[in-house]
Amino acid sequence: xxxxxxxxxxxxxxxxxxxxxxxxxxxxxxxxxxxxxxxxxxxxxxxxxxxxxxxxxxxxxxxxxxxxxxxxxxxxxxxxxxxxxxxxxxxxxxxxxxxxxxxxxxxxxxxxxxxxxxxxxxxxxxxxxxxxxxxxxxxxxxxxxxxxxxxxxxxxxxxxxxxxxxxxxxxxxxxxxxxxxxxxxxxxxxxxxxxxxxxxxxxxxxxxxxxxxxxxxxxxxxxxxxxxxxxxxxxxxxxxxxxxxxxxxxxxxxxxxxxxxxxxxxxxxxxxxxxxxxxxxxxxxxxxxxxxxxxxxxxxxxxxxxxxxxxxxxxxxxxxxxxxxxxxxxxxxxxxxxxxxxxxxxxxxxxxxxxxxxxxxxxxxxxxxxxxxxxxxxxxxxxxxxxxxxxxxxx
Length: 395
Known about the structure:
Helices cover 30% and strands 24% of the residues. By secondary structure, it is α/β, with parallel strands linked by helices. The two termini are 26 Å apart. It is an enzyme of class 3 (hydrolase). Keywords: Hydrolase, Manganese, Metal-binding.
């Protein structure tokens, strides 16, 4: 498909409004109501769900056919904005520093266009305005709610400030990493700092574990397999002359291949538990899989790649060790995921930066991606795809 979407001043104003009124994950109450009003004004059906925030809407076409999901995340980050924009955040300490205001406004633009061109839709388009992507729990909540029903494909995107507006990266390669959060608590026998022999303090064990864990990627994961294990916070004690009875650390692991994630968990647990035994203390390990790797079903990716060239500049994928909970839609339906340029200038502010802005020019290619790929994927599914099913991870 090569439908072109005009971005009206209304859509730009909507993006500015969303940027100015950001809300944190699972607290997007005003954002949800604002989106609901916009959809209903354009005669778009908003489905009843059990979701406290976020919403799902549906546009039915002229005939029965595939149900295609389009997802936009709507939450902001706990960051104090420093952009100096006229429409900068009015909510102290909260900012759309990841561009989810773009995503939501672009999906609205796509929804308005699709509602006016229902004759082009064979089947239904399901609009998913998803809460709390930043917590990596929002997609999981949407799936668990059962509100999606059956989907034949799920399409998502994220803006990329390293690309210019009008550039889109999509393909069969893995784009974003699987993401794990780990938290280790060490329990020991505290003691006076002058008499360490009277206890089994956890500080030395913690230091040994943190150093040993750096060997997991360098020694155990294959050299050409992308993986990261980072300890990001340590805790333990608050008095200068007391050896604490408890300490701990937390951090993240990232991987592109499922087998590497499993290997990292096995080695992580072995190092922590064996070190704890050596120091005669106990260790509690919380290893939380937040999201799997994000990529596109190869069959759909091939179709989308060719289609994108009709309305945008297709550029190579630059894989990221960052995560996106879009990966939690894997298993629900074949997935397509893209990076859409939002800046591209030298010295641009990155995502999750207090100076991140992004260009309003991003709205058009994002909206066009939503519209064109909803139509193209639906047409491809109607015609039938090869049977070699993929899990949507790109691997």
